Each structure stands twice: as C-alpha cells, then as structure tokens.
Amino acid sequence: MKKTKSCRICRYYELDENFCAVAPDYIGKAHLCDDFELAIELDEEEEPIDLRRFIYEQFSKDYLEKLLSPYGKIEVERTFTISPRRDIDLWFAPSVSELPKELGLLARLAKTRVLFEPYHHPVTSDEITASMIKLLEVQGEFHRAAERETLQWNESDLPWLWILTPTISEETLTGFGAEESTEEETGIYFLPPAMLTGLVVIDELPHNNKTLWLRLLGREKVRHQALLELVALPAHHSLRSVSLGLLYNFLAQLEALPEKNDEERLLRELLVPLRGIKN
User: Fold this and answer.
1) Half-sphere exposure of 125 (CA within 13 A, CB side)
2) Which residue from 236, 218, 235, 188 is spatially nearest to 227, judged by alpha carbons?
3) How far apart are the C-alpha atoms of 38 and 184, rounded to whole Å?
4) CB neighbours (10 Å) of residue 123?
5) Cα–chain-centroid distance for residue 206?
6) Least confident stretch, 29-33, 68-72, 89-93, 103-107
7) Beta carbons within 8 Å of 17's beta carbon, 6+ residues apart
8) Of 25, 102, 115, 172, which is most buried by a Cβ count within 10 Å?
9) Triad 168, 80, 247: Cα angle to 5°
10) Which pairs with CB-CB distance under 8 Å and at least 24 residues apart come from 244-252?
11) 124-141: burial string, b at 16+ Cβ within 10 Å, e else
12) Cβ(269)–Cβ(78) under 8 Å?
C-alpha cells in the first residue's frame, strides 16, 4: 500500500505532494486547500486520477446541472446504496410539463426522468455496459417504490439513459444494436426499444441553435464552433450568460494543468478576451 495525500473537495491526489489543482479558490498551479486530507491508502497498482479528464467531465456535470435545475430535480453523482458502489453522473426528474424550447435538443432528451452520462473521450463498450447497469438499478428502485406505494404507472414513466460522447466507433454501435434515429437530429442513436437508452454523438450533430447547448460539451473544433455561436448570441440571452460563466470557471480549472493541449489553448484564446483578462 502507498500513502498518498488527497483532497476532499476535488478528490484529486498526487503522490507525496501537497497539491490541490481544482479547489474552488485555488491559487496558481499548487494550492493546499483547507480540506486537504492526508494518508489515503491506495493499492500500488491503482492509477492516479487523470486530472484533465476529471476537469472536463466535472464541467459537463456542472453545465447540465445549471441548465436543467430550474425545471426539475437534479442529483449529481447520485450514489446507490447497494454494493458495489456506483455513481450516476447526473439524474434529472422534470417538474414541468415541457422544458423551454430554447434548450433545443437538450429539452427533448430531458422530457422524462433521465440519467445523463457525459464523456469527453469516445465512450467504450465497457462504459456503455456500466451505464446501462446503473439504468437497470434505477428502474429497479422505481418498480419497488411503485409496488410499495401501490402507484399506477405506465411505460412512459420509466427513466431513460442518455450517453453523451464526442465520437463512437461503428463496431461499438453495431455491438449494441444501435440505430440512428430517423426522427431526431443526425448523431442520435437508439438501442433496442426495451433498453430505454440513447446515444448522442456530439461530433455528428448538425450546427444549429437546437444542438448548440450539447455541442458546447464537444471537443476541439466542435466546441470551438459552438463557442463562436454562443458568443454571437445577443448579450441579454439568459443561456448565453449562464454558459459563459460556467466556461470561465472551466477555463480557470484548466489553468491548473501543467501543460496545455491545442484544445485548451484555443479555448483560452477565445475566452480570455471576453473575460477581460490580460494574456
């Protein structure tokens, strides 16, 4: 076993370093926050957390939570009580009959109870399977609650799973029997009906206002194009200001990375002037 140091705020750790890179009030690249917790034991074989991946996926959760929370109940990283421990990235149960049309495709995905599992990397078969296990466990909770409280329900009440991924291989789509929707935007795939699972392949979404809020979760050129469209919206647009605020926080967290890739440099180039920060 190795002794390491871990932060309760961000769960990130560095071997033998007092380092918390993504605490809300970090200073520079190395910041020791008040909640830093020492002596977390890990197996020697356990890989350190990928900080870049953590930051990107945390942004996706924060972003979806901010956009959807006015319209229903949100739970981020909802944990099942059964073993082994599994966390749902984001659970949403709408409290309104219809979400605002300005949310576009996102409103259609969230029209019923839904699990969102966003990925910044191309989703793998194992990750799809793990997400579907979470869906089955949620459906099991739903059935048990309905029986316990003798509630009447129909198929449309069952929760759905939406997996958001920048790209996906044809092999993975074929393996799960996924077929592209003939009614929704391009880039939307459905698994066989009984599975109540859909895939949003962000790189394949058309460039229009309906898909803008999901394309902001894309990568590289896709996100950059979406950012240009976001900035071009009227200054009084409510979702424009909300999204930019989240992106500024996202940029601040990326500044903690010791090395920046092309995507992060491009993001900084676009956002820094908007925030009024000198290069």
Assistant:
1) 10
2) 218
3) 49
4) 22
5) 20
6) 29-33
7) 5, 30
8) 115
9) 50
10) 244/271, 244/274, 246/59, 246/62, 246/63, 246/66, 247/216, 247/271, 248/275, 249/59, 249/62, 250/55, 250/59, 251/275
11) eeebbeebbebbebbbee
12) no
**Three-class HEC string of 230-272:** HHHCCCCCHHHHHHHHHHHHHHHHHCCCCCCCHHHHHHHHHHH
Evaluate if pTM is beyond 0.85: no
- Nearest C-alpha neighbor of 47 from the set 88, 74, 12, 77: 12
Of the candidates 238, 234, 228, the residue with the CA atom closest to the CA atom of residue 207: 228
Contact (CB, 8 A) for 89 and 68? no
38-75 residue pLDDT tens? 333 333 444 556 788 888 888 999 999 999 999 999 88
Of 40, 41, 115, 124, nearest to 80 by C-alpha is 115
Please report the DSSP string for 167-199 in residue order: ---HHHHHHTT-EE-SSS-TTEEE--GGG-EEE
Q: Which residues pair with 116 in a beta bridge?
A: 90, 162
How many residues are present in the chain?
A: 279
Task: Name the residue with tokens 């048990």.
Answer: 144
Beta strands in the chain (DSSP E): 2-7, 13-14, 36-42, 72-79, 87-94, 114-118, 160-165, 179-180, 188-190, 197-201
